[in-house]
Amino acid sequence: MSTIAEMIAKAREAQAIFERDFDQKRTDQVVRAIGKVVFDNAEMLAREAVDETRMGVYEDKVAKNKGKSKGVWYDLKGKQSMGIVSVDPVTDLITILKPVGVVAAITPTTNPIVTPMSKTMFALKGKNAIIVAPHPRSKKCSAHTVALINEAIAKFGVPKNLVQCIEEPSIELTQELMRAVDVVLATGGMPMVKSAYSSGKPSYGVGAGNVQVIIDRGVDYNKAAATIIQGRIFDNGIICSGEQSFIYPKEDREKILDAFKSNGAYIVPDADHDKMVNALFVDGKIAGDVVGQSVKYIADKAGIKVPDGTRVLVVEAHGVAQADLISKEKMCPVLAAFPYDKFEEAIDIARTNLHFEGNGHSAGVHSNNEEHIRMVGMGLTVSRVVVNAPVSTTAGGAMASGLACTNTLGCGTWGNNTLSENLTYKHLLNTTRVARLSPKVHIPTDEELWAE
């Protein structure tokens, strides 16, 4: 048998035992332990991730490891995920939750710790087995995370091989894994997501991000600028839900740019616009060497001198969507800026940029006008809109947001995904419904049914 075939066989054996022997209480003890071990080792794992991937910010990765472990457990704690969960009082329909089986978790180099953690928590919450296929560039820290998870859950008597990791990942092994499991969770670049959808197995993939943020009139511009910058620079901008562009009232250009400057932004002179674009993109695609890098690195690459202490670079766009590449996703501390006249134009700019890249993912709005907030929700083809908060750290779930805490953000059919919400444990469950003809249901006559 091949390595993958052996892993699958062991996973199926372990899953059968786990499903048979673990009730809700024991299962939840195991799931809690997964999040807690990452929380307890947040600093060590953050250091390993930064050192291995050469991306991101250590302090932000510590915050991410702690925040995501807490957030996922907060969402899962106390939720029933097995057995009979409901009996309809009228139809007597019985709803039963069951595992899907063996899950493949394809994880990215941008989030090499919390993505394996969250997917494992979701999988085991539904009594599934899971095999993690990490990105080759982050294989060591991801494998160490899985090793720590296995050490933590062993004390609860879980069957061996319930959680496994491909320690020497490759495209070929990942593709073989995807063809052999029961469901695929694909987080990473679009080619990998397309490969998951082509595997012949049910798959949950994610689309590209390109978060557009609209600044409404009448808000505190300084507060909005501070919040947008906070979201943009988190972990050097590698989060897919990170702010990419802000769209502002044209007549307040100076006030708004001054607000960004006062919060550490450097407004790139128009004469240096092309230098920035050429540093960020190669053949229309994001340059791999800028992803997750610092402002200084990017400025040096572009040949631009910026003041010490600069937190983010702001580039004023020369046009919308295809008219200027700066409107695309920039996975580093760079923001594009677009002016608007009427609020409807702001929505149109955001929608046009999203159709160019990032359709279906996320957007943000800073506004005190509820009608305008709802206009953004109605007008943009995104799966989530974040209001008056950092999109980067809210769209993936914050305790007060109502959004499920996750690292896998579906983009719906707009982003060629099957999922238009935040992936969680419920997406890794099969449902059996036991139905009967209940005498408690009133069956209308034809006249009653068709009456106006």
Write the layout of secondary structure elements.
Blueprint (H helix, E strand, L loop, with lengths): L2 H19 L2 H17 L1 H12 L4 H19 L6 E5 L6 E6 L2 E5 L7 H12 L3 E5 L5 H16 L8 E3 L5 H10 L2 E4 L3 H8 L5 E3 L5 E5 L5 H13 L9 E7 L3 H10 L2 E3 L5 H8 E2 L2 E2 L8 H8 L9 E5 L17 E7 L2 H14 L3 E7 L3 H10 L2 E6 L3 H4 L34 E6 L11 H5 L2
Parallel strand pairs: 3-4, 3-6, 4-5, 6-7, 8-9, 8-15, 9-14, 10-13, 13-14, 15-16
Antiparallel strand pairs: 1-2, 2-17, 11-12
Helix pairs in contact: 2-4, 2-5, 2-6, 3-4, 3-6, 4-5, 9-10, 11-12, 13-14
Q: What are the key terms here?
A:
single chain; 452 residues; alpha/beta; seven-stranded parallel β-sheet; five-stranded parallel β-sheet; 17 strands; 18% strand; globular
Describe the structure.
The chain is of the alpha/beta class and 452 residues long. It contains 16 helices and 17 strands. The protein has helices at residues 3-21, 24-40, 42-53, 58-76, 114-125, 139-154, 171-180, 190-197, 221-233, 253-262, 273-280, 295-302, 343-356, 370-379, 391-394, 446-450, and strands at residues 83-87, 94-99, 102-106, 129-133, 163-165, 183-186, 203-205, 211-215, 243-249, 265-267, 281-282, 285-286, 312-316, 334-340, 360-366, 382-387, 429-434. The strands form four sheets. Strands 10-13-14-9-8-15-16 form a seven-stranded parallel beta sheet, with helices on both faces. It has a five-stranded parallel beta sheet with strand order 5-4-3-6-7, with helices on both faces.
The rounded Rg comes to 24 Å
State the separation between the terminal residues, measured CA to CA: 65 Å
Give the overall form: globular
Which strand order does the major sheet show? Answer: 10-13-14-9-8-15-16
